Amino acid sequence: MTVASAPGKLVIVGDYAVLEGAPAIATTVGIRAKAQVTVTAAGDSVFIDLAGGKAYGFVFETGMGLTWVDESPAERGTILEAVLETCNELLTLPDPLPSLRVSMNTDAFYRSIGGSSVKLGVGSSAAVLVALTGALVAALGMRVERPSLLSICHAAHRRFQGGLGSGIDMSAALYGGVVGVTLGRGESEPETEALEWPEGLAMLPLWSGNSASTPELLRRFARYRAAEADAFSSHMRYLTRFAQHADAAWRSASVVELMSALAGFDDALRALDADAGIGINTEAHEQLRGLTERHGAVYKTSGAGGGDFGIAISDSTDVIDAVRADAIDAGFSLLDKELDVDGLTVGT
Predict the structure, then answer these.
(1) DSSP E strands: which ranges in 237-287?
(2) How do the domains of the chain map onto residue ranges?
(3) Is 3.40.630.30 the CATH classification of the domain at 2-196?
(4) β strands within 50-195, DSSP E
(5) For the residues 96-103, what does the mean pLDDT come to?
(6) Distance CA 218, CA 195 (A)
(7) Pairing of strands 309-314, 298-301
(8) Within a 10 A sphere around the Cβ of 332, how many other Cβ atoms?
(9) 101, 118, 154, 291 - which has most CB atoms within 10 Å?
(10) pLDDT tens across 259-269, in order?
């Protein structure tokens, strides 16, 4: 049995603008998705739905792709299909593929609220896809270097999401720590660089209390780009300028300049949202922004927005502690997990 895990992520800067060539920075968070792959002696391959306690048989043929014996296990099945078919295209899997026993676990990405299970929007699908890919290639005895593995994960995730997304979460889940990402032209995978955490930077992830559909928000973004090309280009110029300033400040460990650039990026992102009606900035984010800025810290939404997480940034841990206390008093939840954690790990 081969076991792999990969972390979630938070986008610090570059949200949306990375899709148009702007630099982006993301950090991993200490919430991990897990995958297990076992090569078995014979019989049908099986995907085990750990949450539902049900087994789904499948057959994979190199020329035909994956076929479920009976029913498909919904989203997890689609991730497995995307990984197997992309690996076959880019690596050439053994033919015939040996029988496999596969399972995935993203329980850590959910929180129980009011008796309901709510997903935390920190990249669970990317994390479990990276974990599954790492477990699969290791279980099959294939040696794949990290840049090639990133290409596979990026292509598989785009297949899974219908071509949407920048690949930031794949880069973070695979490489770990803090990553700088720029997206190449066309279908190329993101260029990824490991970055150091700036000394003196304090950051607090704040949960809005609601989950959001990233694919739907990205579709609204794409519709605005197609319908209002000139206005869209103007917004992207402002976002790119602030993203570049933030990237330079991060690399030079200038926390004050970084805070200024992130505040400018947040303003520019809200202006885009006001014109495009994407739904990035919600009432909860406005409330979190207000209580953060009262203490002199900077607030911005993280990732696609529309709910999920925002981040408070300061050069003072005392300020961040005050923001934390106010957020708790206002009824918001925190993500009390370590940042800047290791990426993909694979073992037996």
Answers:
(1) none
(2) 2-196, 202-334
(3) no
(4) 54-61, 65-68, 100-105, 110-113, 116-119, 178-183, 190-195
(5) 93
(6) 27
(7) antiparallel
(8) 18
(9) 154
(10) 999 999 999 99
Alpha carbon of 16 to those of 151, 210, 334: distances in Å? 21, 20, 24
Contact 266, 299 (CB under 8 A): yes
Name all contacts of 235-241 with Cβ < 8 Å and 24+ positions apart. Answer: 235/268, 235/271, 235/272, 235/275, 235/276, 236/17, 236/20, 236/22, 238/268, 238/271, 239/16, 239/17, 239/20, 239/22, 239/265, 239/268, 239/269, 239/272, 240/17, 240/20, 240/21, 240/22
Angle at 169 between CA 338 and CA 108, to 5 degrees: 50
Residue 304 and residue 214: Cα distance in Å, rounded? 6
Tokens at residue 129, please? 């896809």
Q: What band does 28 get if pLDDT is binned at 50, 70 and 90? A: very high
Condensed to tens digits (0 to 9), the pLDDT of residues 295-313 reads: 999 999 998 877 789 999 9
Fold of 202-334: Alpha-Beta Plaits (3.30.70)
Identify the H or E element spanning 27. Answer: strand 24-39
User: CA-to-CA distance for 180 and 12, rounded, in angstroms?
Assistant: 10
Question: Does pTM top 0.90 for this prediction?
Answer: yes
- Give the DSSP H/E element, type plus range, for residue 25: strand 24-39
Give, rounded to a whole angstrom, the gap between the first and last alpha carbons of the chain.
Answer: 6
Give 222-234 pLDDT, tens digit per residue.
999 999 999 999 9
